[in-house]
Amino acid sequence: MNHFRHTTLRLLLAGLALTAPLAGHAQQKPAKATKTSKAGSGLAVIKEADLKRDLFALADDKYRGREGGTLDELRASAWLAEQIRATGMEPAGDDGTYFQWFNLQRTRLTKTSTLRIGTRQLRPNHDAMVVAPTNASVNAPLVFVGLATPAELAKVDLKGKAVALQVSGAPTDGISYRRYLFGKLRDQAAELFKAGAVAVVFVSDDKAQAIYDHWSHIYERGRYGLPGDANTAVVNQPPVVWLPAEALSWAKQAGQQFSAELKVESFAYPSVNIVAKMPGTDVQLKNEYVLFSTHQDHDGARAPVAGDSIYNGADDNATGCAALLALMRAYKQEPARRSALFVFHGAEERGLLGSRYFSDKPTVPKESIVAVLNAEMMGRNAADSAALLGSTPPHLNSSDLVKTALAANQEGPKFKLDTEWDKATHPEGWYFRSDHLPYARLGIPAIMYTSLLHADYHTPKDEASRIDYGKLLRMTQWMYRTGWAVSNRTAPPAREPGFKLER
């Protein structure tokens, strides 16, 4: 996007956020509530009905899944900024607005790229997934090696050949099969290229097909990053192609030719963080911030699944967005000694891009952020269970903050806490997949509130109608109780000495 268009879009969205009429629910000042012993009076203004209303609005089809770097994400962000303004929170983004703009870099195959195996013309990233965008021109005989072992492959002349093989094996080190499979596609292809192959074609088995069906859409769009990231650099390397299981019958036919003409294009899209604050009441502590974190984007509109093409992202992560709006109303009802900073991160699904950008270029002094409380998927699974990530070594970077959060749970919702998902040995590596991570890497005390994954995760079935709103209410109250305690204590949460993540 050129400078003029980018500036015009910024002004348009800033105007929407700063000049649109007040939302109807925010025209009335919240009623005064009786102050509880360990939480502020704002606890009473966190309402299930408000959470449900806001979540249904944000997860509506009209925002088309809020894909990072699209107008859908920006339209949803403008709506969020208007809701934030209606709560009375002060802008804390760029130039007196609620917005902090950044570019995400996208590298993808051009629409003119072609791929053929034998007589079959395949549409790249539709009929066959190209694992990494690359400039490549290949015309080579295809040799099918099936389930050949490394020893068997060593006896095959692979030089100048396109090599087709079936996916095989299982993880032995505790990681999930999904992570194992993606790593295998990368590592085994690298070994075959060292042996002289000019292209690699993987064919799914039944187990890999389940991952192909659920996750292959991530390759449709190409790769994303911040400008300068290595993974978005335009490269010239042999192609790696991933086929569905149904392709096995024809991929193994002898005497076929592999042909690919792949071209890459790279360009920048605007994305945005939405930032607001509630100033603290203490003359000194108001210069410190408790940061409440979430993300507003999801996966957008894609190929239909059972007739539904919109990945609404109700749990992931409209729940977090609705929670932060409720927390803002609570802090407006009764401000704390420290300032509260609220950040909706853009383009999280593209690789934590918004939180990476904000943690590197915060709109408040970096050293003034004393804790990060991150909301990520808080409305599904068993009503009485949840998880607090960042509470188990090596992810624990503040025992002090975690003790406060655990005490807040006992004061309020009394969730049964699942600690398995926070362990370094958990196969999903869930700790590394949300917006608290860039802050934790800086040593800032950081935790994540979540109700964990479920079968509808990253599918069009993640709809507002499937959320447990009573549970979301209790999760939000838990976050508030924790934040309120941290916001009002004199000393900031102590940092864990020697904190170091496993990767």
UniProtKB/TrEMBL annotation:
What Gene3D superfamilies does its record include? 3.50.30.30, Zn peptidases
Q: Which InterPro entries match?
A: M28_fam, PA_dom_sf, Peptidase_M28
- Could you tell me which residue ranges the Peptidase M28 domain spans? 273-479
Q: Which residues form the signal peptide?
A: 1-26
Q: Which UniProt keywords apply?
A: Signal
Taxonomically, which superkingdom? Bacteria
One Pfam family name is Peptidase_M28
Q: What is this protein called?
A: M20/M25/M40 family metallo-hydrolase
* Naturally occurring in which organism (per UniProt): Hymenobacter yonginensis
